[in-house]
Fold Transmembrane 4 L6 family member 4.
Amino acid sequence: MCSGSFAKCLGITLIPLAILCILCNILLFFPGGLTASSNENITDEVWYFGGILGSGVLMIFPALVFLGLKNNDCCGCCGNESCGKRFAMFTSIIFAGVGLAGAGYSTIIAAVAINHGPKCAFDTASNSTFGYPFENGDYLSNSTLWDLCQQPERIVPWHLTLFSLLLIMGLVQAVLCAVQVINGLIGTICGDCCGCCGSDGAV
């Protein structure tokens, strides 16, 4: 498979992942699927926009670049100076780096949020307060602690599911962008379709 075609496949995969990450981040603004009574009641990590900016907007640009790589004329990839294929593949490495940074940011935010736990209403020794009842991810291995969160309802599985999805999709995006870095290097050095000149530009 030509490096341009392979990059297009990566771009096609990244687009739905980016959309899903944006949706997950938006859903996190509705704790437990309900409208928050105050912005202060929303988990802090949600406001870092890991899914919207990191795995979302920053991932759209590399995906579009990867999708457009195959549109160049393949015949110029074997040494024709007028062909910009090698430069296009080199540019894709830069955009893949941007995607890696975005996916890494989203993954780190998601991991911190999972360890931190959700913000919710819970009882203290003196009264009921809104904050973080869990410490250092202790609720992950002990689901009985989930009952500490009284409001919003179902906030713990909501928080854990959506941030886990962001974590997994961020890791997948990072791997795909890393693969494109390698693919882009190969395309920059060898051209998009090594050997295509002997077949009149056929892929």
User: Anything to note?
Assistant: The chain is about 55% helix and 5% strand. Residues 155-190 form the longest helix (36 residues). The radius of gyration is 22 Å. Confidence is low (pLDDT under 50) at residues 73-79, 194-203.
